[in-house]
TrEMBL record, chain B:
<protein>
    <submittedName>
        <fullName>Ferritin-like domain-containing protein</fullName>
    </submittedName>
</protein>
<dbReference type="InterPro" id="IPR009078">
    <property type="entry name" value="Ferritin-like_SF"/>
</dbReference>
<dbReference type="InterPro" id="IPR012347">
    <property type="entry name" value="Ferritin-like"/>
</dbReference>
<dbReference type="Pfam" id="PF13668">
    <property type="entry name" value="Ferritin_2"/>
</dbReference>
Length: 239, 266
């Protein structure tokens, strides 16, 4: 049985990427989940995100809407992976000389992993995928190792916290497992980057219960907003 | 909505659906006794609760997952505690600090899981007896063997939690806690791997993980490239190598696969 995401976010039509993805395969269980999820899907709540000046809760017509339900969560992940992939692409293009050979390999790997996450999510979302985001890396000094690594740590820790916080909103078990496959790779990245900054700090993100942070989409998008020019609306994400 | 059509549809995928629902017959009887209009409106909710019970995600399933995780955390805590106490095993100060940090996290996970199980009216399993020397006699005298096992435990832990996420999908609180532990285990794994001079991520089925043949079950299936219905995830863009495509996605293990690995130390 094939399963394709049917919902379409409501961004400007001309910005829509029309490339057809191959759709996500549904294991048997999903048939059941589609029925069982029917009631839960009915509950969505408006939330305002990075638009502090937008007190009326209305969606900015210029904003890219992530969409609702599982599609919205996958688009949210896709947005973050776009940001990370763009960053490491820039690092590999401009900054390799500031790194040791081992570190260069790490940067190449991170670029590869984040790019394939991005391209995978785009393909999986198909016509429901949000358009390419415009990023702003003007605050990063790409000639400075420390500036690059601290930005990388911000992105990787944020990615981990984002997936940890968003897992609960996924209705589809297959998507949840997929998110799990990606988040532990983000956590490996985060640990390695942290160790490159200060060896031994790989898991200092955890609290005194041994738990990594789990952040809500609105907080994650707020934290990422200095690096993303495109306005993003998370108003229709599950809550 | 035709309830019988739905059950018929489910039956195509799950021939045992009637068996699962059998013990819930009373609910269907009750549904028949309400007025027709009300019954129609109530069906989605009634179905939700019937299916939730019939298909697990019940508190029993959640408790099973938590006790399964607890066993792994006991194993890790025990392993690191003994390793730190073994004279002359971990002498480098940075290595000791890292292993101590990891041990503390595993101890915190044990406590948190025990508390969570108790709060759900379950009973935490007591700590099993582990025998790390059963297949690795120099585990507490050879630093390299100790680190190899640490890597195997951490990478197994990541895969074990990942494999259970779907079983927690209906309990947001427990699911989130499990994810928050899962990513900490992945951080441990990356660090321990680099202590051994291998990359923090898993390429292929352990091709870059430098473990002996006996430890291969830890990495079985990590070379999977079929993701979300895309037959070969390398093809989603240009120039993706197998190493990149497999390292970018960590793979789950089933409970049975994990039990097999743990049995090497029992």
């Amino acid at each position: 049985m094939n399963f394709r995401i049917m919902e379409k976010p409501t961004q400007k039509k001309e910005k829509l990427d029309t490339r057809e993805g191959s759709g996500l395969y549904a294991p048997q269980r999903r048939m059941f989940l589609r029925y069982a999820g029917a009631t839960a899907l009915a509950t969505t709540l408006l939330l305002t995100t990075s638009c502090d000046d937008d007190d009326d809760g209305m969606t900015d017509p210029e904003a890219v809407d992530l969409g609702s339900g599982d599609t919205g969560i996958l688009n949210y992940a896709y947005a973050l992976e776009q940001l990370e992939a763009a960053f490491y692409t820039e690092v590999v293009a401009r900054s390799l000389s500031v790194f040791s050979q081992t570190e260069q390999q790490i940067m190449q790997d991170l670029k590869g992993h984040e790019s394939i996450h991005r391209d995978f999510l785009k393909a999986a979302l198909g016509s429901a995928a949000i358009p390419d985001l415009e990023v702003n890396f003007s605050s990063i000094n790409f000639n400075d190792k420390s500036s690059i690594l601290t930005t990388a740590r911000t992105f990787e820790d944020l990615g981990v916290a984002a997936y940890n916080g968003a897992g609960q909103y996924l209705e589809n078990a297959g998507f949840l497992t997929l998110a799990g496959k990606i988040v532990s790779v983000e956590a490996r990245h985060a640990a390695v980057i942290r160790d490159l900054i200060t060896n031994g700090t790989f898991s200092d993100s955890a609290n005194n219960q041994g738990l990594d942070p789990a952040m809500m989409p609105a907080d994650v998008l707020q934290a990422a907003s200095p690096f993303i020019v495109t306005k993003i609306s998370a108003n229709n994400l599950p809550k | 909505m035709n309830i019988f059509k739905i059950i018929e549809d489910i039956e195509k995928f799950d021939p045992e659906v009637y068996g699962r629902l059998d013990s819930r017959r009373k609910v269907f009887k009750n549904m028949g006794s309400i007025g027709k209009k009300t019954a129609l409106a109530a069906i989605p909710f009634a179905l939700g609760s019937v299916f939730q019970k019939a298909y697990g995600q019940s508190s029993n399933m959640v408790l099973d997952v938590l006790n399964f995780a607890l066993k792994l955390e006991y194993l890790e805590r025990n392993f690191y505690t003994q390793g730190l106490a073994a004279s002359g095993l971990i002498t480098d100060s940075a290595a000791r600090a890292a292993i101590q940090k990891i041990q503390e996290h595993e101890a915190q996970h044990v406590n948190l899981l025990r508390t969570t199980i108790t709060s759900l009216n379950g009973t935490p399993i007591s700590e099993p007896t582990f025998n790390f020397g059963k297949n690795f006699p120099d585990w507490n005298t050879s630093y390299q063997t100790f680190l190899t096992l640490a890597q195997a435990f951490e990478d197994t832990g990541v895969r074990a939690y990942k494999g259970q996420a779907a079983n927690l999908i209906n309990n947001d609180t427990v699911l989130t806690v499990a994810l928050q532990i899962h990513s900490v285990e992945a951080r441990h794994a990356a660090h321990v791997r680099r202590m051994r001079g291998v990359k923090g991520w898993i390429e292929g089925a352990g091709a870059n993980s430098n473990v002996p043949a006996g430890a291969q079950p830890v990495y079985a299936g990590e070379d999977n490239v079929m993701q979300g219905g895309i037959n070969d995830v390398k093809t989603v863009g240009a120039g993706y190598s197998a190493a990149i495509a497999t390292a970018a996605f960590d793979e789950p293990l089933t409970k049975e696969q994990v039990a097999q690995i743990v049995s090497l130390f029992e």
